[in-house]
Amino acid sequence: MSSLNLNQISIANSSSLTPEDLSKARLQNQILEDRLGSAKVGRFLEDTRLRRHLTYIFAFIIFLWLAAVVSILYFNDNLLHLNLSENVLITLLTTSSVNVIGMMLIILKNLFPKHLNEEE
Fold first, then answer.
1. What transmembrane ranges does the database entry give (predicted)?
2. Terminal alpha carbon distance of the chain
3. b/e string for 3-25 if b means 16 or more Cβ within 10 A?
4. Tens-place pLDDT, residues 52-77
5. Mean of all residue pLDDT scores within the chain
6. Are 92 and 75 in contact (CB under 8 A)?
7. What's the rounded Cα separation, in Å, for the pair 64 and 60?
8. Rounded Cα–Cα distance for residues 110 and 104 (Å)
9. What are the residue ranges spanned by the domains of the chain?
């Protein structure tokens, strides 16, 4: 491989540029911009797909969590006879509510991110 001497490149050498060189440079620049645009669109589509899957997963987890809490509350005295105290049941309801609200906030912040360049 031959080594490239960057000292030979200067503004003085720019006069030797031909219109053909400029058109090639513009074409290469356009190709790079098109590839960058395609990469951005691909990334956006992939992010959207992943967000949709995460939303479904979190919604399912929230559903299971709430079903478990309702089951524990219902079956506490009816079928399972767990005989949990009122303090335990209050704690269960409180922590479940906080967990559900927290998960929904995480999902919503992920689906609708606030960009840094937006004005408040």
1. 53-75, 87-108
2. 55
3. eeeeeeeeeeeeeeeeeeeeeee
4. 888 888 888 888 888 888 888 888 87
5. 79
6. no
7. 6
8. 10
9. 19-111
